[in-house]
Amino acid sequence: MAFRDIRVVGDPVLRTPCEEITVIDDRVRTLVDDLVETVDHEGRAGLAANQIGVSLRAFSWNIDDEVGYVLNPRIVELSEDTYQDGDEGCLSVPGLWFPTNRAWYAKVVGTDLDGAEVVVEGTELMARCLQHEVDHLDGMLYIDRLERSVRKKAMRAIRDQL
């Protein structure tokens, strides 16, 4: 296992949709170990594989003292009439937080390292994490979801950090 460096906005790997994992081999096992170790620190809620430079569909989470992972996740359910609009941040957009609308509830289905189905669901922070990490795997950052005026401020703040 290794604690991995986080890729930041501007790195093309963050904008590239990740590939499905078709074979669970030592490379994928090592990736999961690295995702779990890297997310298991205070202040970290989730981590997608492309955030550590690996363009495969996997992410880990660290919510309410539960650390886990899922391979090939897909969102299968979102609350349609209940939303949350709190501030959201991202390890790949360090130090910046902006109000981001997300579904209040989310459900993701994927697999584990044994190929067994994994269902991860939750509300509030867990729902936000699931949506945020699947976005990463699709090559999208949370700043892409911001309202136009807020996105303009976010882009300015990002440029000021560079």
TrEMBL record:
The entry's function note states: Removes the formyl group from the N-terminal Met of newly synthesized proteins. Requires at least a dipeptide for an efficient rate of reaction. N-terminal L-methionine is a prerequisite for activity but the enzyme has broad specificity at other positions.
According to the UniProt entry, its GO molecular function terms are: metal ion binding; peptide deformylase activity
This protein's UniProt keywords:
Hydrolase, Iron, Metal-binding, Protein biosynthesis
Cofactor(s) the record lists: Fe(2+)
What does the note accompanying the cofactor annotation read? Binds 1 Fe(2+) ion.
- What's the catalysed reaction? N-terminal N-formyl-L-methionyl-[peptide] + H2O = N-terminal L-methionyl-[peptide] + formate
Record's signal peptide: none
SUPFAM superfamilies, per database record: Peptide deformylase
* EC number, UniProt record: 3.5.1.88
InterPro entries this protein is in? Peptide_deformylase, Peptide_deformylase_sf
The family database entries (HAMAP family) matched by this protein are listed as: Pep_deformylase
What residue ranges carry the coiled-coil annotation? none
Species the sequence originates in:
Beutenbergia cavernae (strain ATCC BAA-8 / DSM 12333 / CCUG 43141 / JCM 11478 / NBRC 16432 / NCIMB 13614 / HKI 0122)
This one is known as Peptide deformylase
Q: Which domain of life is it from?
A: Bacteria
Q: Which GO terms describe its biological process?
A: translation
Gene encoding it?
Answer: def
* Family that this chain belongs to: Belongs to the polypeptide deformylase family.
Q: Which residues form the active site?
A: E133
Record-annotated residues binding Fe cation?
Answer: C90, H132, H136
